[in-house]
Amino acid sequence: MGKIPVFYGRKNDNVELYLRDFKRACIGNGDRRPDDWLQLLPSFLEDEALRWFEKLPADRRETWDNLSAALIENFEPMDRYENLLGEMASLSQGVEESIGSYGARVEKLLARFRRHLHRSGGANQVAGIEGLVLKGFIAGMKPQIREMVKYEGANTFSRALEIAIRREESMEDSHHKVIDSSVEMGVQASRPEGSQPLLGTHSTNSPILTPYPSSPSHSTLHEAVAQLTNKISQLSLDLVQARRNPP
Questions:
Q1: Mean pLDDT lowest for which of 5-9, 14-18, 21-25, 186-190?
Q2: CA 162 – CA 180 distance, rounded (Å)
Q3: Is residue 167 part of a domain?
Q4: How far is the C-alpha of 193 from the C-alpha of 213, rounded, in Å?
Q5: What is the pLDDT of residues 152-182, one digit of tens each?
Q6: How do beta strands 199-201 and 207-209 pair?
């Protein structure tokens, strides 16, 4: 049987490591259900952790997920405010990063800001920080996405993320259409005058693939696709600007 550890809530205690060891010990003793952990945990809290638990609202004690989340929220080491501000100032979507992944990173930063402000008595500053993070989030987007988010005037993080995802999906659709069109143009250009269609026949009259004598190189097609995609993106931005500033 495993010995269940005690959590004291001291400054240097690692709450997430404690919860991992607590669950492992419980499972080793046959208590495998979250409801079991919920009933056992209060018996293994001491000092500051126990005093905190006794003041915890009833709704935070109703489920294991609620209780463990509350424990982490209260006893996780607090980020330095200067570090959080530095991360906010350097927000930027990676070259190959999707807007969804970028948004998830910013959401985590927001959660850390909120936790810091609530624990340091600065809860009245949360709205201001959320506004600054929103500006940094938008500023760090890829240019084509950022222009659309600004054009639609997103004033909340969730709204900005929704618009950005929609814009990214539309850009991907345009890119695929350009590729299909470019490939088709390349096939047409490579077909010798008077040649047969791609589907030919052999002696049994069943369809077979007949390769063309020559075709554009992959690199040439790739360059053409990239150029057309850039032109389409620029045209989209020009249309946005034209709608915003009609003659």
A1: 186-190
A2: 28
A3: no
A4: 12
A5: 999 999 999 999 999 999 988 776 655 556 5
A6: antiparallel
Output phi, psi for 7, to 5 deg: -110, 125
Domain range holding 218?
173-244
149, 163 contact by CB (below 8 A): yes
The total number of residues written for the chain in this structure:
247
Query: 130: closest CA among 147, 154, 114?
Result: 114
Mean predicted confidence (pLDDT) in 79-104 = 91
Residue 7 lies in a domain: no
Token reading at 9: 């809530």
- Backbone φ and ψ of 209, nearest 5°: -85, 125
Position 239, amino acid? L
CA–CA gap between residue 188 and residue 204 (Å, rounded): 27
Per-residue pLDDT, averaged over 30-36, amounts to 92
